[in-house]
Structures are given as C-alpha cells and as structure tokens.
Design goal:
Blueprint (H helix, E strand, L loop, with lengths): L6 E4 L9 E10 L5 E2 L3 E2 L2 E7 L13 E11 L8 E10 L15 E3 L9 E5 L3 E2 L11 E7 L3 E8 L2 E9 L5 H4 L2 E7 L6 E3 L6 E9 L5 E4 L6 E2 L2 E2 L9 E3 L9 E8 L9 E7 L6 E8 L5 E8 L16 E3 L6 E8 L7 E10 L2 E4 L3 E4 L9 E7 L13 E7 L6 E4 L8 E2 L2 E5 L2 E2 L2 E7 L2 E7 L9 E8 L2 E2 L3 E4 L6 E2 L1 E4 L2 E4 L1 E3 L16 E7 L24 E4 L2 E10 L7 E6 L7 E9 L2 E2 L3 E5 L1
Parallel strand pairs: 15-18
Antiparallel strand pairs: 1-14, 1-17, 2-11, 2-16, 3-4, 3-15, 5-6, 5-14, 6-7, 7-9, 7-10, 8-9, 11-12, 12-13, 16-21, 19-21, 20-21, 22-23, 23-26, 24-25, 24-27, 27-28, 27-29, 30-31, 31-37, 32-36, 33-34, 34-35, 34-38, 36-37, 38-39, 38-40, 41-45, 42-43, 44-45, 45-48, 46-47, 46-49, 47-48, 49-50, ...
C-alpha cells in the first residue's frame, strides 16, 4: 500500500475476465535510492496482484479463497535469490487459527500475521533468476501477468526486451475464470516489509493496464501486505484515479494511472490549452503547454461535445505524457483526438497532475470539417518502388494515386502487424476485397495510398481497384495482372538516384561505404512475383524464395544471384542477394533487375 492508500483496476460485475495485465512506471523522478525495512538497501518487489477467487482446490474448507501474485523480487546484497515467479495463496478469511490443512506437501502453511497477512497456505512457481537491478532501472521495467485456462505466465521486460518468463498451472486457483481486479506497485521485499524512499524528492507515476471484454474502472483497494512510504496524490475527494482507453506494448486495451510522491510542498501545475490544428472531418490535433516549474508531472487532454463535461477525468482522454523538466519554462505538448463526428464543435482542456494535485486549463474549442459528398477517384496504380504503372504483381508493394482519397493531411503510416485493411476511414478494395494498407498520405494536395497487392490476384488476368471512404465507394479501374514488374527502392542525393542496397552487415552501401568487387550485397525491391508458400496478405515474409530467379546486372555485367525471395519480417518487400562482379570500374555503377521479361528501374551502387 502507498501511504495506506492504493488503487486497483477492476472490471465491473458481469464484464468478463481479465486475460492479461501489465504494470509499469511511465514517470520516475528524483529516485536515487531505496531501502527495504527488512531486507536492506535496494531490496523491493514489483507485484501484480489479482483479486481473491473461489478456487476449487479449497473444496469444502470454510472461508478459503485463492489469491495469485505475479512477482519480481529484487534482493541485492541479500542471501535471497532475485528473480521472477508466480505466488499462489489459499487464504483463510476467518478469525483465529486456520481450521484446515494445506492440500499437499507442495504447499507451505502460513500462520496469520495481522495486519500484514492472513493465514493459510502458500506455493511458488519455479523462480526464474534475474537481477538484482538498481532502483534507477525502475522506469525501464514492465511486469505482465497472463492467464489462460491452462497456464498462467509472469513476464518481465527491461527496455522492451523480455528478460524473464515464469510459467505455472492455472488449474491451481482457476484465475482465468475469476480475474477481475489488478493491483500493481513497488512494495517491500516481503513479510509485510516497507519500501522506503529518501525523505523527500521522489515521485513515481504508476500505470496498470489490462485486457478484458469490458472497460475497467479505478477503485481504492489493495491486497498485498507489503507497502511503500510514498503517498498517493489525493487530487480528488474521495480519492480517484485516471482511466485511459489506450494500450501498453503488451496489448492491453485500457489502463489506469495514479501518482505517488514524498515531495514536500510541490508547485501546483499550470496547464494551458492552445488552438487546435490539423483539423479534418474526423480528427484534430490538440495543442497545449504547461509551466515546467511544476515538474515532474503527467499531462494530457480531455475533450467533449459539451464544456460542462470537462473535468480532466471523464472519457475521452488522450494518452498521458510524462514531463520531468525542472527548468522554469514552458513545455509544449500535443495529441490527436480521433474518431470524431464531422461538422461538430468539440471543447477541450489541457490537464496536468503532479504531487500537488490535478490542474485543468481554461477550455478551448474547434469544429470538425463538414463531410464532403464527393466521391474518391483512383487515377493510377503503380509499383511502390519504381512508380511504373501498366499492371500489378501479386504480393508487391503498390501505390494508388487519386483525388478525394482522404480527408487527412500529411504522411500517415499504419503500425503493427498484420497490416490493417482500414486506416483513417479509408479502405482500398481489390476485386471487391479490402487489402492491407501501409500508409494514407496527402502532401501538398498529392494524395496516395500505399498497399500490398493481394497474392490472390494471381488468378488474373485482370484486377479491379476501388477506394471506399466516408460511406462512399469510387468507381473501379481495371489493370492487368503481371507475372513480375521489378522495382528497386531508392533514394536521391543531388541528381543521382541510389538503390536501397546494403552490405551483408546491413549497413547501407553508399559513397562513404562503397561495395567491393566480390562481396555480397542485398538489393531491396518489390514486384518479383510468385514465391514458395506465400504468407497471408498483410503478414510479413519469412525468407520464402521466388519461384523464378531474376537476373541482375551491375555496371552492365551479370552478377551472381545467391538468394531471391521475401525479406524476413517485412510485408511485400523482396530481397535479392548478389555478388558484385569483379573488374568493375570504381564509381557509381547502374543496377538493374530483370524478371519474366520485365526490367526494373535503374539505380546506382557506389563501387570501390
């Protein structure tokens, strides 16, 4: 518990069970040291704790409930092992001695130790050793718990990389059926101990994310007997915390945020909302600033169709951003409000939270653009590397140009795999089927959609293309399906166009680091056609070879091809490995790929 108060994320009754939860610290400021009251300097636990559950293993035992914890224990300078594990409890919720025995010898009996722990039985999964870590590593750690009907898993990430994975049986407590609440924080090392931070100057923001069928709420509740001397910022009475409809890197769909601190008399934050920008029919960029004398703090925006609803707490909220700049200056921040209604006025405020409390700016407003009833038009579909038209190739990266393709502005890239079929209200249809999208761009009036041509169009001989957006669908255009149309990705330096060609160590072959005769280089391209066992549309390749091997010339000389296929971990991208011919003159040499009677664009490769 934090200063005798702790927050948990809970799914409302009947809202289904949690299957994954994560805990992290998006803001850690002024934390230079920590000492556990029982286990010494730098000792602590990160605990992701579930609610108590009616475990079937309790049988007919009265007042018996199951409880599960996902724990990373850190014990520097102590004989105890640091590492990751799952801890299972059978708790007796009655008074006095436990009236029943543990199920078998794998469970250890625990006597009641009020107020820190109830009596019952405890059992640990296998500990996966890791650490110890420094307290300054706290912002880089992310602890997750997963629960399925067969296994429960604890995962620890450091700098986004998995460093430990502990697995146990879900059948011990049946957590996957009843998991509805999550508590997370940094606590003492065990046995009811306290994680003690220096007397003043430490501030931590706590983030609890989860995935469940229903949107969670925040409750004042906690389960563990361990504690920390930091105090939760009680910025509302009664105490309350924030709930964000966003995701952690582990795939959670919502999260709660709260802040705990021991800073003495922090400066109250002063946020300001500025005019919105980049407005269109369904989104706008909200802009604001905050006086950094209130650092450290969290900042975000809240928006609504009525100004009376602006309290910095109610949905919708934009993702929070940490600010830890002690200089007395203004920090500018922005976030995009999306999925808005067209021709609608929205009000918004900039919000800030620090150890002093929650602050809100004066409201601002903007109006989204009116939905235009103008149909989109596709004017051309070309190879995404060479921009050559005339037909499409199954599996290639392609670009559709046109008018009224999007109401968005700028370069907008999709994220995550598999690639989405709809992005910014746009869906590109090939043979009346949505396809995987890379980007939807509108720069200086030039509109384009980058996409992957489905592998299925190989049945040919033609493929139709149409764009659906704003509840309308454009007229379709038809293009022939080609066996191949190679295009080499490239970049320009002055008047020269160089190929996206790498050395075998994946460093760019350029004028500062030219290719050497006899070495193998990697040419990145698209449009080479059929491959052995193609992946699902929108999914990355895994080195599948092309059914036919292309020919490659460098400086007009045939180069030996050692591999031709899909580049691993990329969608629609091909990789051709070739040996640079010996005897080439020093300088920029043209590179051309030919496949199925079609030749690529010519690009340059610097050769030593």
């Amino acid at each position: 518990m934090s200063g005798n108060l702790d927050f948990s994320a809970t799914v409302p009754p009947g809202g289904g069970a949690i299957d994954v939860a994560s805990g992290a610290f998006p803001l850690v400021s002024g934390v230079a040291g920590e000492k556990d009251s029982s286990f010494g300097l730098g000792a602590f636990t990160l605990q992701l704790n579930a609610n108590k559950v009616p475990a079937s293993i309790c049988g007919a035992n009265p007042q018996c409930w199951g409880w599960e914890q996902f724990i990373f224990a850190n014990y520097p300078g102590h004989q105890l092992q640091s590492g990751l594990f799952i801890q299972y409890w059978l708790l007796y919720l009655g008074e006095g001695p436990v009236p029943w025995s543990c199920p078998d010898a794998s469970w250890a009996p625990v006597s009641p130790n009020p107020p820190y722990s109830l009596g019952g039985c405890v059992k640990n999964s296998q500990m996966i050793p890791f650490g110890p870590v420094e307290i300054t590593d706290l912002p880089n750690l992310l602890l997750s718990g997963y629960s399925t009907n067969s296994t429960d898993t604890a995962q620890l990430l450091n700098y986004g990389n998995q460093i430990a994975l502990a697995i146990g049986a879900d059948s011990l407590l049946d957590l996957s059926q009843y998991w509805n609440t999550v508590e997370f924080n940094i606590f003492g090392g065990g046995d009811g101990s306290n994680a003690v931070f220096p007397s003043s100057g430490s501030t931590i923001a706590v983030e609890i994310g989860l995935h469940a069928p229903s949107f969670p709420t925040c409750i004042v509740d906690g389960y563990t007997g361990e504690s920390t001397n930091l105090t939760v910022v009680p910025y509302l009475n009664p105490a309350f915390c924030l709930t964000f409809d966003i995701g952690l890197q582990t795939g959670t769909t919502a999260q709660i945020e709260f802040m705990e601190s021991n800073v003495t008399a922090p400066t109250y934050p002063i946020p300001t909302a500025d005019a919105a920008s980049s407005r269109n029919t369904t989104s706008a960029q909200l802009n604001g600033s905050v006086d950094t004398s209130g650092s450290p703090m969290l900042v975000w925006f809240q928006y609504s169709t009525t100004s009376e609803a602006l309290d910095c707490i109610s949905q919708p909220l934009t993702p929070q951003q940490p600010v830890d700049i002690p200089a007395n200056a203004s920090y500018y921040f922005n976030s995009v409000a999306s999925q808005l209604s067209s021709d609608t006025t929205y009000y918004y405020v900039a919000c800030a939270l620090n150890g002093a409390g929650l602050a809100s700016s004066s409201p601002m407003n903007f109006t989204t653009f009116t939905q235009q009833s103008v149909n989109a038009t596709i004017t051309a579909v070309v190879n995404g590397a060479s921009f050559v038209g005339g037909g499409v190739v199954p599996g290639e990266i392609a670009t559709a140009f046109g008018t009224n393709l999007t109401s968005s502005t700028g370069i907008n890239l999709t994220s995550g795999l598999p690639l989405p079929a709809t992005f910014l209200n746009d869906t590109l249809m090939v043979n009346n089927t949505p396809v995987a999208l890379f980007a939807v761009d509108n720069v200086n009036g030039q509109q384009q959609i980058n996409f992957q041509v489905p592998w299925e169009v190989a049945s040919g001989p033609n493929a139709s293309f149409a764009i659906a957006n704003n509840s309308t669908t454009s007229a379709s255009i038809s293009l022939p399906v080609l066996a191949a149309q190679p295009g080499i990705f490239n970049y320009s330096v002055g008047e020269n166009t160089f190929g996206s060609i790498l050395h075998a160590n994946f460093q760019l072959a350029n004028t500062a680091n030219p290719a050497m005769p006899g070495e193998t280089v990697l040419i990145y391209c698209t449009g080479l056609g059929a491959v052995d066992s193609p992946p699902t549309d929108g999914e990355p390749g895994d080195g599948q070879s092309t059914m036919a091997t292309p020919t490659v010339t460098i400086g007009g000389t045939n180069a030996t091809v050692t591999f031709s296929g899909l580049a691993p971990d990329f969608v629609g991208l091909y990789q051709v490995n070739v040996e640079v011919p010996k005897g080439l003159a020093t300088g920029n040499q043209p590179v051309v790929i030919a496949q199925a009677g079609a030749s690529s664009n010519s690009v340059l490769l610097p050769v030593q």
